[in-house]
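Helix-hairpin-helix domain-containing protein
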Amino acid sequence: MQVPRVNRWILLGAIAALFLLCVWTHRGDFAREERLLPIVTVEGASLENGGYLININVADEEALQTLPGIGEVLAERIVEYRAENGPFASVDELDNVYGIGEGKLASIRPFLTAE
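Tokens:
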């Protein structure tokens, strides 16, 4: 049985569309399985209560930037404040650093310690 020429093109187009649909729906699945998150060790961090705490009295700018909402500028201000005023007596003293208000302090407090 011979299939008319027009029907062959329709059939070929349908097969190609199905193939592309399969490729599109499964794109990246294999790559996603292979992705691994890097393990980062932070100097001045200790494991306590099931989570890592960053000691604000010894942490460098890079470690401070791992905190949510703390970028390069705020990390630099924290380190400068510590250099000018000595070690932090408590985490709450971060409120004295320009740019860190009550809201920001509340969001980063669970990740900090002042030892």
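Helices lie at 5-25, 29-34, 61-64, 72-85, 102-108.
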